[in-house]
Amino acid sequence: MTGIIVQARQGSKRLQKKSLMKFHGEPLLARVARLLRPVGEKIIVATSTNKEDDSIEHWCTKHKVSCFRGDADDVLRRFYNCASVYKLDVIIRITADCPFISSDLIELCLHQFLRDGGKGYVGFHGLRGLNVEVFDFGTLQQAFLHGPDEHVTTWMRKQEWAKSLEELEINTKDDFKRLSRL
């Protein structure tokens, strides 16, 4: 099963309670969830067990979005446990502070991941706020064995087999050929 895990919390050091702040008339988390729906995969919000994140769980319950609560500091552990509970084979990682996330970009990364055999890691980090990461449960399990990680995918991104989609514009024939294969 493929699922989108949305990393969300209210305790950000830089902007407290941002996950449920109104952005263009709706809570940021609501906007992100709405933008993710066209992908057609299960959406799970992964938040912490901290009291301040009760409001995220309440929002999820009210809006019929799956919610998982886990470790506040070890986000990798939270993702691993969430993926285990929901029996996810393929995980799409998104953060709740990306109000312009694109379902097209997610589908592009997922398509490339599946085309490469559905194992390992494919990510897009071309522009802050549009980050998409796709990886399989086995890769998540390996990362988990390498210890705590507040960014979840640090170990994955350092592996030589990790694939990054960074250049998505067509300026040359080679660009056209490369992007036509995606």
Overview of this protein structure:
The protein is of the alpha/beta class and 182 residues long. It has one domain: Spore Coat Polysaccharide Biosynthesis Protein SpsA, Chain A. It has helices at 28-36, 54-62, 75-85, 103-115, 137-145, 154-157, 173-180, and strands spanning 2-7, 22-23, 26-27, 42-48, 66-70, 90-95, 121-124, 132-136, 163-164. It is globular and about 55 Å long. The two termini are 22 Å apart.
Question: Could you provide a short overview of the structure?
Answer:
This protein is α/β, with parallel strands linked by helices and 182 residues long.
Q: Which of globular, elongated, flat, extended, rod-shaped describes the shape?
A: globular
Question: What's the number of extended β-strand segments?
Answer: 9
How many structurally independent domains?
1
Task: Tell me the strand order in the biggest sheet.
Answer: 5-4-1-6-8-7-9
**Helical residues, percent:** 25-40%
Characterize the largest beta sheet: strand count, sense, and whether it forms a barrel.
Answer: 7 strands, mixed
Low-confidence stretches: none
- The average pLDDT score comes to 94
Q: CATH homologous superfamily? A: Spore Coat Polysaccharide Biosynthesis Protein SpsA, Chain A
CATH architecture: Alpha-Beta Complex
CATH class identity: Alpha Beta
CATH topology (fold) name:
Spore Coat Polysaccharide Biosynthesis Protein SpsA, Chain A
Structural class: alpha/beta
**Strand residue percentage:** 15-25%
Please trace the helix and strand order, writing H or E for each element: EEEHEHEHEHEEHHEH
